[in-house]
Amino acid sequence: MYQKYLFITLLLMTGSLFSQSKGITSFEENGLFGFKDKKGKVIIKPQYEQAMEFSKSSVAFVVSKNKWICIDTKNNFLLESFLYDNGPDYIVESLARYVEEGKMGFHNERCQKVIEAQYDFAYPFENGYAIVCNGCELQPEGEHKRIVGGKYGIINKKGKIVLPIEYEAIGSIDAKRRTAEVKKDGKSVKAKLK
Fold first, then answer.
1. Are 117 and 133 in contact, with CB atoms under 8 Å apart?
2. DSSP class of 21
3. 83 — phi, psi (to 5°)?
4. What DSSP character marks residue 112?
5. pLDDT above 70 covers what percent of the chain?
6. pTM reported for the whole predicted model
7. I need a surface site. Which of 82, 167, 168, 194 has the fewest CB within 10 A?
8. How many angstroms separate the Cα of 169 from the Cα of each of 7, 119, 124, 191?
């Protein structure tokens, strides 16, 4: 009987550890955002320009010095998100883009870096592949930006280069046939993915 109650107590304690972020909510004070626990105790003092709520993965995106960053419930900086649609990049196929020292890589929903930031630009994943480029630049075009110049290639979700970064452009990717429409030396051709 004692073991049964001990097991239930341990189960409840373990459950409360995993659901810590569920009771955390953002609040605003003097134009800055912070976070309180479910009892109303301040756990992260107001210091952010904007704040999104903590996710089930116990991370939140906040704005610090005009950049969207990801923090954990202890207010540790995890990474800087790529800015997309005036907010942090969307998670697509379990990954989103982040920026580090001017380069782009990919992180998971827990803001853990999965693919090292080593590209000048990276498109979101689609059907298991992402187009990346080096030597390219984001140029302002009205309120948006477009990518110009550079050489393009393709990576898979493990970060492996499956098409070398040597093409002028990549049109479409056929994931089933493992081919891509590419442009090299001014000509459009099909290239086989590794």
1. no
2. G
3. -75, 120
4. -
5. 89
6. 0.85
7. 194
8. 59, 15, 16, 12
Count of domains for the chain: 2
Residue-number span of the structural domain to which 109 is assigned: 24-119
Q: Token pair for residue 126?
A: 């689609």
**Same domain flag for 107 and 128:** no
Structure confidence at residue 21 (pLDDT): 60
- The tens digit of pLDDT for each residue in 99-133 reads 999 999 999 999 999 999 999 999 999 999 999 99
Other Cβ atoms within 10 Å of 16 Cβ, number: 11
Same domain, 44 and 94: yes
- Cα separation, 176 vs 63, in Å, equals 40
Q: Count CB atoms within 10 A of the CB of residue 53.
A: 12
Per-residue pLDDT of 157-186, as tens digits, reads: 999 999 999 999 999 999 999 999 999 999
Burial 105-134 (b: 16+ CB within 10 A, else e): bbbeeebeebbebebbbbbbbeeebbbbbe
Bridge partner residues of 185 (DSSP):
none
Q: Are residues 53 and 139 in the same domain?
A: no
Beta-bridge mates of residue 172:
none
Q: What is the pLDDT of residue 74?
A: 97
Contact of 27 with 35, CB cutoff 8 Å: yes
